Amino acid sequence: MLQFFDVTRDAPWFPQVKALYESAFPANERIPIKHLLDDKIKQEFWAFFDKDDGESGAAENTADENTATPRFCGFSNSISHGDITNIVYFAVVPELRSRGYGSQILQVIREQHPDTRIVVDIEVEEDSKDAEELERRNRRRDFYLRNGFDASPVDYVWQGEHYRLLTAGGTVTDKEFRDFWKEILKDIPGAKYP
């Protein structure tokens, strides 16, 4: 059974989340993790655990202290405004990839935001520097497509990396995406938006 909990600096799983964040995303694609914990922006920063009791697909937001320690599977960080939810960061523990955890995590996010358009950004495949990087980018794109996301015409550059949006639950225009980030970051001095 998949469970999820808020990530806070005091959470016992914070070191695992931080280590996965730093290993899963290159330095140019990360912001300081303290900003993911900052309450100036209303965001969801969740750690996901497999309760390992034979059930699958369900998610809870409560801890059960009387059972075996659940296995840390991954995390997500998303921001919602209006009818758009942007999954900003999302990673599964490397040794647990290709076991369905990523799909389950996406399902939880969609269940928590049933009436929103969900967007993710992926690095543009044609910008890859070598065959191995191209293969990773293609796998990432195919994963999202298998999980109900569609290609979008929106591309942007942020911190030197070229991204393309994929959407689920409806299309998001370039203007909507930029307006989303302008609104989210309006009270953050010096913040850069896509």
SSE diagram, text form:
Layout lengths: L1 E5 L7 H11 L8 H5 L5 E8 L8 E2 L10 E11 L2 E9 L8 H12 L4 E7 L7 H16 L3 E9 L2 E8 L5 H12 L9
Parallel strand pairs: 1-3, 5-6
Antiparallel strand pairs: 1-2, 2-4, 4-5, 6-8, 7-8
Walkthrough of the structure:
The chain is globular and about 45 Å long. The chain has helices at residues 14-24, 33-37, 101-112, 131-146, 174-185; strands at 2-6, 43-50, 59-60, 71-81, 84-92, 117-123, 150-158, 161-168. By secondary structure, the protein is of the alpha+beta class. An 8-stranded mixed sheet has the order 3-1-2-4-5-6-8-7, with helices on both faces. The protein has a single domain, classed as Gcn5-related N-acetyltransferase (GNAT) (Aminopeptidase), CATH 3.40.630. Strand 4 (71-81) and strand 5 form a beta hairpin.
Helix and strand pattern? EHHEEEEHEHEEH
> What distance lies between the first and last C-alpha atoms, to the nearest angstrom?
36 Å
Count, helices: 5
Supply the number of structural domains: 1
Strand order of the largest sheet: 3-1-2-4-5-6-8-7
Named CATH architecture: 3-Layer(aba) Sandwich
Short structural description:
The protein has 194 residues and is of the alpha+beta class.
Key terms for this structure?
alpha+beta; Aminopeptidase; 8-stranded mixed beta sheet
